[in-house]
Specification:
201 residues, alpha/beta, Rossmann fold, six-stranded mixed beta sheet, 6 helices
Length: 201
């Protein structure tokens, strides 16, 4: 028979694992309307400019793929369609440039340009993406392939930020480097699970 102290220890360990699973991302923030946010269509904007610009297309693709797995979202605009729209419409592209510049300067979502972007993309929400890392590095004595992302979910009908998250994922290796797109795919699936609307609603 297990002693009470062993039972208490086991319960505490199980609770610690549960909490670790629930708070798995490095940073998560939900706005006041996140619990009731139910968009019908979403687009992933081209990732914001960074030192990892070579990863932009791959990141946009894996995030769209992760969103397509969420049964609570009815329509995900393909990255190709997003790119085509910005190439075809100067007004939409100018709105994107202005939106990103205001976000960089103020840290806030600009209402008017966000609404314009939503209308141009025919969506009621979109994801703003920043690639924080996309590299092979030495970490704690190991060789790792590392991908890091920051995401911001925007309500395109009001221009407000609904949810924000930041996380990274690493894959260690000895001889053969992991494909960073595969690492990014696992990371995208992990982060999107925390994004409203939740598929299990």
């Amino acid at each position: 028979m297990s002693s009470p102290s062993c039972i208490r220890l086991g319960t505490a360990f199980s609770l610690a694992l549960l909490l670790a699973g629930c708070g798995g991302l490095q940073e998560v923030w939900e706005g006041p309307g996140a619990k009731v946010f139910r968009p019908q269509a979403i687009a992933v904007l081209p990732p914001m400019a960074s030192q990892y610009d070579s990863a932009r297309e791959d990141i946009q693709e894996v995030l769209a793929g992760a969103l397509n797995k969420q049964t609570s979202i009815e329509r995900v605009v393909s990255p190709e369609s997003v790119t085509d729209m910005f190439q075809a419409s100067k007004e939409a592209f100018d709105s994107l440039v202005f939106y990103f510049s205001r976000l960089e300067m103020t840290g806030q979502s600009d209402k008017d340009s966000a609404i314009k972007l939503g209308k141009a993309l025919n969506v009621d929400s979109f994801l703003v993406v920043r690639v924080n890392s996309w590299e092979y590095v030495r970490k704690e004595g190991d060789n790792v392939g590392r991908v890091g992302l920051s995401l911001r979910l925007i309500d395109a009908t009001t221009g407000t930020t609904v949810w924000k998250a930041r996380h990274e994922r690493s894959a260690s290796y000895m001889f053969f480097r992991p494909n960073l797109k595969d690492v990014a795919r696992e990371l995208a699936d992990e982060i999107i699970k925390y994004m409203p609307p939740q598929a299990k609603r």
